[in-house]
Amino acid sequence: MATITKHFLPLTDGGQIHYRRAGHGPPLIIMHPSPNSSANMTTAINAFSEIFTCIALDTPGYGLSDDVVADPTLLWGYADVVAQVLDGLGIQQACIYGAATGAQIGIQFARKYSARTALLLLDANGHFGGAAGEHIANGYFQDITPVRDGSHLIRIWDMCRHLSVFFPWQSTRGTDRLALGVAPPDSIQHSVNDYLRAGPGYKKAYYQAMVVETWENTRQVSVPVHMVRNSGSVLLPHTDALIAKGLPPNFTILHCDPPQRFKVQLDAAKQKLAQLNLPTPRPSQNDHTPSYQRIQNFYAAARGGQLRIRGNLAGKGRPIIALHDPAGSSLLVEPILAPYLGQRPIIALDLPGNGESDNVIDPSNITSRAYAEIVIEALNSIGVHEVDVIGRYSGGPIGMEMSFQHPALVKHLVLAGVGIYEGAEQKSLLDNYTPSIAPRWDGAHLVRAWAIMRDQGLFWPWFNRTKSGNLPSDNSIDVPMIHLRVMEMLKIGDQYQKAYGAMWTYPMRERLPKLKVPALFAVPTWEPIYSKNAECAALATYSRTADLAPRMGDWHQEFTPFFGS
Q1: Within its chain, how far is the Cα of 253 from the centroid?
Q2: pLDDT value at position 31?
Q3: In angstroms, how far apart are the furthest CA atoms of the chain?
Q4: pLDDT digits (tens, 9 = 90+) for 83-130
Q5: In 3D, which of 427, 449, 435, 437 has the Cα closest to residue 504?
Q6: Element of type H or E holding 519
Q7: What DSSP state is assigned to residue 291?
Q8: How far is it, in rounded angstroms, from Cα 325 to Cα 503?
Q9: Architecture of domain 5-130+204-273
Q10: Can you tell me the distance from the alpha carbon of 348 to that of 323, in angstroms, rounded to the nearest whole number?
Q11: What does the alpha-carbon distance between residue 183 and residue 533 come to, in Å, rounded to a whole number?
Q12: Are 32 and 82 in contact (CB under 8 A)?
């Protein structure tokens, strides 16, 4: 298995392209099907990294890449972004591999930038012209805009499930039935997560790929092409239709069965590389030096993996780090830090297993202390040695443990929504707050996840759906926020049970008197745990309390004087 690292490449317009890298040798740009990401290409990366430096891109608007393509028509804008990536990585000429949508982007790139294409490898491509293309496209792209009842999630599940039952997925014709079993729930959920990352615009490149996937377009490629005819591909009839129409002599057809798919391509590529003189690209550079203008993504290293950060290290003074709640991510605390952009360095970090971070925490030791150890390691990897910490809910105990483990690191600590949970209340939370959301064959876990996050805005605790549990907050049915929280919850999955458990069982009464850093206990007055604020502050020596505004974006008004200079 190759060692695969993840990176963000800044573009000249301020956007970022996310990619995975592995191997050594001539550069091979790898592009995935829609609406997936480079995470789906690990088999290809592992195979090709034997002879190539593999650079597997998230197509703009998919995975973690920004949607920097204004005009998707015929995929020319995506081809231009590939050229920008080559420029950014200092690569003059590369081999290009694409599967499905990635193959069509590769074709357009090779047509427009033939001098920069040493070899084009096409996988899962064919001819979709005429009536066959209309049959595929009709009904293929469903609206997945978030709606109040969460039914968009079931729509996505249905789409992803039926990709292994029919092609096209929306068909009910026996002639379109695939000779496959239904994909397992975990695999379907992985695809669902890709749709959720891409959002309602998931069809942007997807649809255009179907438009250009024709013999008329493919035959215009003039560079050397290796094209796979995979006997097990669901696209085999369309691949054969393309071949039957006749292709130019620069096309070499590689016949294979599914188990030999990558071996056949690798063997053919080895022969071709012997005729080329492509240098190994330079190492990827640090990606945590964004401009003042925006919050961007970068990675920190910890425990042999990588943690995703949303932030910006420009500005003066100590960095401010925000730590999210058990089922959340950096996206949910980013509004707290946004007012400091360009003034103070800011870091919103996805904890291990949350958001887009690798799950490098020991599953048998998911505690606030263990999280703190990993966060400290991550900060050290990017050269951060002093911070002011804002901990939201479970982020508070993690910040406390950071101050105990590394006293010189934490200078100020905001505990935004912490409490002491004991006795019957603690037991009730442990027993009821985190029912399983493990993927089910019927997709019912999605309904449960939506209901949990919806009711978190209506009741405290959410499972107390009675008059006594009512929350007096405005806009409690905020569909975009519920959708975001469900999306992040589905990424961590049932590990959220242990993450919440670490918060409910944290020995707050024992640990608070040991705090040696200035602490601000702050929470909006409408939150149900507001009454716990003063109780916690009374146990900490260097502390005070603050009532926060309803909007996170206004919290800096209380935090800035507390942090000082």
Answers
A1: 35
A2: 98
A3: 80
A4: 999 999 999 999 999 999 999 999 999 999 999 999 999 999 999 987
A5: 427
A6: strand 519-524
A7: -
A8: 9
A9: 3-Layer(aba) Sandwich (3.40)
A10: 6
A11: 48
A12: no
Task: Using a cut of 0.90, tell me whether the model's pTM lies above it.
Answer: yes
User: Where do we find the tokens 């599967």?
Assistant: 99
Q: Where are the domains of the chain?
A: 5-130+204-273, 145-199, 296-422+506-563
Hey, CA dihedral for 453, 455, 459, 465, is it positive or negative?
negative
pLDDT of residue 292: 60
CA distances (Å), origin 298, targets 84, 222, 313, 361, 392 = 19, 37, 10, 20, 21
- For the domain made up of 296-422+506-563, give the CATH fold: Rossmann fold (3.40.50)
CA distance 210 to 143: 18
One-letter identity of residue 9: L
Q: How far apart are CA 326 and CA 267, in angstroms?
A: 47
Q: What share of the chain is helix, strand, coil (3-state, %, to 5)?
A: 40, 20, 40
Main-chain dihedrals φ then ψ at residue 391, nearest 5 degrees = -110, 120
For the chain, state the CA radius of gyration: 25
Length of the chain: 565
Query: CB neighbours (10 Å) of residue 160?
Result: 22
Q: Are the beta carbons of 43 and 177 closer than 8 angstroms?
A: no
DSSP string, 349-408: EPPTTSTTS---S-TT--SHHHHHHHHHHHHHHTT---EEEEEETTHHHHHHHHHHH-TT
Angle at 179 between CA 175 and CA 184, to 5 degrees: 125
- pLDDT for the residue 422: 97
Cα separation of 373 and 357, whole Å? Answer: 15
Instruction: Read off the pLDDT band of 290 (50, 70, 90).
Output: low
Do 5-130+204-273 and 296-422+506-563 fold alike per CATH? yes
Question: Exposed (0-12), middle (13-18) or buried (19+): which is 447, by Cβ within 10 Å?
Answer: middle
106's enclosing H/E stretch is helix 101-112
pLDDT 10s digits, 523-556? 999 898 999 999 999 999 999 999 999 999 999 9
Distance in angstroms between the alpha carbons of the first and the last residue of the chain: 48
